[in-house]
Amino acid sequence: MSFDPLALARDIKAAQDHALSIAPLTGRYPGFGLARAYEVAAHVHEARVAQGARLAGRKIGFTNPDMWAALGVDFPVWGRVYDHTAVQCDGGEVLCRLDRYVEPRIEPEIVLHFRDAPPPTRDLARILDCVDWIAHGYELVQSHFPAWQFQAADTVADNALHGALFIGAPEAPASLGPDLIDRLRRFRVELSCNGIRRETGCGENVLGNPLAALAHLLEVLADRPAGEGIQAGELVTTGTLTKAYPVHPGETWSTALDGLDLPGLRIVFAA
User: What does the pLDDT read at residue 65?
Assistant: First the structure.
């Protein structure tokens, strides 16, 4: 069945703007794959920029292989983060209203900010040399496809399920001590809801290391049109360190990190 990428982009953007659920695109268009999905996502991005949105960076999704079977995917995807979806919460606590999101879930992550544009490389030290700050954060992801039933191409078209990014206090890599690459792999994060621990994750859950997730993204972007590479001044949130957990009004979620000198975060959810 033929389809109009611009029309699909309008449908996706309306779902994002008005917290609507829609049928998966792959169910309506059996030939809808990743190439078409990134095309639709690019049209949504163009529409947002035309309305005044500013690109803040990228998000990498599905970097935790433990989640792949449950979500029906087997590789990472990427989407865009905007100035209106990135929230700095240096005080360590933030209030989030959930009425603008559809079936939201929380993901504790590591956020990297780039002083220089990183080159496509698997050398994690070269990537780290381009980073001017690192922070712990939460990504709030959502599914406009009912009950989180989708294929990878659906999520790509829907900006990799990005809802919002809450960013904790940033720290320069040098302030985090020696052997940072190894500690980014080994550190642990405890995720709790209303004071009850839900899961303990680690940096290794993110494709082996948050920096390795970034290396994967750089390889993917190298095959994209010129100008889509990560630029100086962008941030990248590297994927969830635990499973993604549904969130509800009245809940308070918190994290504590061990092995990496970054403060934990508290997020209070309201209707």
Answer: 79
Whole-number Å distance between alpha carbons of 139 and 236: 11
Q: Cβ(12)–Cβ(158) under 8 Å?
A: yes
Please report the pLDDT score of residue 210 as a whole number.
Answer: 98
242 secondary structure, DSSP code: S
d(CA 122, CA 125): 9
Which residues is 140 bridged to in the sheet?
Answer: 106, 164
- At 132, list the tokens: 């001017």
Please tell me the distance from the alpha carbon of residue 201 to that of residue 255, in angstroms, as a whole number.
Answer: 10
List the alpha helices (DSSP H) in 164-255: 180-186, 210-222
Angle at 110 between CA 104 and CA 112, to 5 degrees: 120
CA distance 70 to 187: 25
pLDDT tens-digit series, residues 245-266: 999 999 999 999 999 999 999 9
pLDDT beyond 70 at 1: no
Does the pTM of the predicted model rise above 0.90? yes
**89 token code pair:** 């919460």
The CA distance from 71 to 101, in Å, is 19
pLDDT digits (tens, 9 = 90+) for 185-235: 999 999 999 999 999 999 999 999 999 999 999 998 998 877 789 999 999
- Please state the length of the chain: 271
Provide the token pair at 141: 């992801």
Rounded-to-integer distance, Cα 27 and Cα 94, Å:
37
Q: At 31, list the tokens.
A: 């030939």
Distances from the Cα of 109 to the Cα of 45, 132, 191, 202, angstroms: 23, 17, 11, 10
